């Protein structure tokens, strides 16, 4: 069964800035971090996980019915899940477009719930994952988070979202777009 998720792809300017940012952040910690890769960096709107292939046509039809207007998105700020003192995930927040991304994620939830896909239990928290810490341990992550938050990000217009297949490999996930859904 394919492993699927729905998200917003990031523009070239973001992907080009990721590797230099990660190099500078990795110098600030000796923790083992799986940093995001520029070829798979995205904003997740809904993770579907392992999905029966027979459901994909219905998924595509439900997603095609999602109505949203283009909106501006810009990364800004940084944080960690579950908390900054003992993080498992380091992320960038959204300085612009967070409310619109949450509205889009809600419309996707509504459309998929209508075809029997369970709703998320946790509220949607728009973020761009920078890295996952392999062995979380207490420490002072403020230099890493402050440096990530200080990086300037340009605004861009979200004009579509994508249904992706994520194939896990020893070298990392490979994301293949299955369908794109444009703004109206």
TrEMBL record:
The active site is at residues 42, 127. InterPro entries: Cyclic_Pdiesterase, Phosphoesterase_HXTX, RNA_CPDase. Its EC number is 3.1.4.58. Residues 8-91, 96-174 form the Phosphoesterase HXTX domain. A motif (HXTX 1) lies at residues 42-45. It catalyses: a 3'-end 2',3'-cyclophospho-ribonucleotide-RNA + H2O = a 3'-end 2'-phospho-ribonucleotide-RNA + H(+). Pfam families: LigT_PEase (PF02834). It comes from the Bacteria. It is an enzyme of class 3 (hydrolase). Gene3D superfamilies: Cyclic phosphodiesterase (3.90.1140.10). A motif (HXTX 2) lies at residues 127-130. The keyword Plastid does not apply. Keywords: Hydrolase. Transmembrane segments: none annotated. Belongs to the 2H phosphoesterase superfamily. ThpR family. Hydrolyzes RNA 2',3'-cyclic phosphodiester to an RNA 2'-phosphomonoester. This is RNA 2',3'-cyclic phosphodiesterase. It comes from Pseudodesulfovibrio karagichevae.
């Amino acid at each position: 069964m394919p492993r699927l998720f729905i998200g917003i792809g990031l523009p070239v300017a973001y992907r080009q800035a990721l590797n230099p940012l990660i190099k500078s952040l990795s110098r600030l910690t000796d923790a083992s971090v799986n940093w995001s890769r520029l070829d798979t960096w995205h904003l997740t709107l809904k993770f579907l996980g392992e999905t029966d292939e027979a459901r994909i046509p219905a998924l595509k039809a439900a997603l095609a019915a999602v109505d949203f207007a283009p909106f501006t998105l810009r990364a800004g700020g940084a944080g960690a899940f579950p908390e900054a003192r003992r993080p498992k995930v380091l992320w960038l927040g959204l300085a612009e477009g967070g409310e619109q991304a949450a509205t889009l994620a809600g419309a996707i939830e509504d459309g998929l719930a209508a075809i029997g896909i369970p709703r998320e239990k946790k509220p949607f928290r728009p973020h761009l994952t920078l890295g996952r810490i392999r062995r979380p341990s207490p420490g002072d992550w403020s230099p890493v988070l402050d440096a990530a938050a200080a990086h300037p990000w340009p605004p861009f217009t979200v004009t579509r979202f994508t249904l992706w297949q994520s194939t896990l490999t020893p070298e990392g996930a490979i994301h293949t777009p299955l369908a794109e859904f444009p703004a109206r």
